[in-house]
Amino acid sequence: MSWEAVGAIAELLSAVGVLATLFYLAHQIKLNTKEIRDSALQSLQEQNMAFLDSDIHTEIGDIFDRANAGEALSPAENAKLRIWFVRGMKLHEQVFLQHQRGRVDDEIFTTYHNRLAREMSSSWAVKYWPWAQHLFLPAFIQYVESLRDEASSA
Predict the structure, then answer these.
(1) What are the tens digits of pLDDT across the range 93-128?
(2) 43 in a structural domain
């Protein structure tokens, strides 16, 4: 066997090794992407549960029901509802951002989208949104404004 043949075989083996490495890296990237999505979903679920847990252990549920019924709230109750509203909207903003970055799939996003669309049609959300919107990113503000516009035209 000549040195040229040995060199050709070595090049072929090198090419096979490069291809195997590329397939392995592609597989690892795919697994990593899945892990990132799973981690983002877990984090959002934990935030959502903490948010809902705060409703159970405080008077916010009663204040929320009274606000939905159009009853007058005290200044302290208004402040509590505004804070609760901002916390909920921050959760929606996280879902929005994670979806934009490809970390939350369409099915999860649609669930939060429908919930936010329903919330933005309530009188208290319409009242508190102008007060709170400066706390959010411009892209999220545009998104919420589009939901609010859809709700007001329906």
Answers:
(1) 988 988 998 888 899 899 999 989 988 888 878 888
(2) yes
- Decide if 8 is inside a domain: no
Which letter does DSSP use for residue 135 in this model?
G
Residue 32 lies in a domain: no
What value does the mean pLDDT of the chain take?
A: 81
Query: Per-residue pLDDT tens for 8-53?
Result: 777 877 877 777 787 777 777 776 776 776 676 567 567 656 665 6
> What domain range includes position 140?
37-153
C-alpha distances (whole Å) from 22 to each of 8, 27, 30, 119 are: 21, 9, 12, 47
Rounded distance between C-alpha atoms, residue 73 and residue 105, angstroms: 38
What gap in Å lies between CA 136 and CA 14, rounded to an integer? 52
Into how many domains does the chain fold?
A: 1
Give the Cα separation of 142 and 112 in Å (integer). 16
Spatial distance between the Cα atoms of 145 and 26, rounded to a whole number of angstroms: 40
Q: Looking up tokens 């890296």, which residue turns up?
A: 25
